[in-house]
Structures are given as structure tokens and as C-alpha cells.
Amino acid sequence: SRQPAKTLWYDRPRYVYLEFCVEDSTDVKVVIEDQRLVFSCKNADGAEFYNEINLYARVNSKDSREKRSDRSITCFMRKWNEKVAWPRITKENIKPAWLSVDFDNWRDWEGDEEVERAMVEQYAEV
Fold first, then answer.
1. CA distances from 108 to 21, 39, 47 (A)
2. What is the mean pLDDT of each run of 10 residues along the chain (126 residues)?
């Protein structure tokens, strides 16, 4: 029996970020398409997680990647139209119970591009 992972998301000028909160994940699979993301994994107890998100707008799947840590799996997807704010991450205007905005990382965009570039470079080195 699969269940959706608790998911946080936030918006940046060039990328949108999704964090799937699963500790000690194994068998992580992330498929990023132009308008859709599919995520699955297991946790230490063998529970299966599965999330499918039809994205609000198009992303560049070639310039999108994920990074796994002990606590979560973070995906960042390059927006097709940069500097266009996403009011939500889902195409449908309904918020699933498992999805929340990551307010800690949600900031105004003013002068934010340097910060974002540094974050992406940091991820890319991993």
C-alpha cells in the first residue's frame, strides 16, 4: 500500500523546488517530465511512498535534478519561463493534503538570484 510523501515546495526566479520528506529513503526514483513529476521511494521500515504531480507550468526536464539526504529528497526544476512566479506547484487548483508551502525558503525575489545561483551550484557539486 503506497502513500504520498509529505511534500514541501517553494518558488524561485529560475527554479521551483520540491522536497519529499522521507527519512532514510531507499529505491528513490524521480522522473521529471516537461509538465509532470513522479516520485517514489521506500523508507527504512519498507513503507512505499508515491507522489505524482502535474506541474503548474512547463519545466526544462533536461536542467532539473534531485538530491537525496538522510531526511529528504529535494528536486529542483528549471522553469521554462524564468522570472514568472508560480502561484502553486500543481496544475489543478486543489491543494493535496500532503503538499505544503515551505515558508522557511519562500522569500521575496528581490536580489534573490545570487542566492539561488549559489544554492544550485551547491546542489550540483554533490
1. 24, 28, 37
2. 96 95 97 97 97 98 94 97 94 95 79 71 67
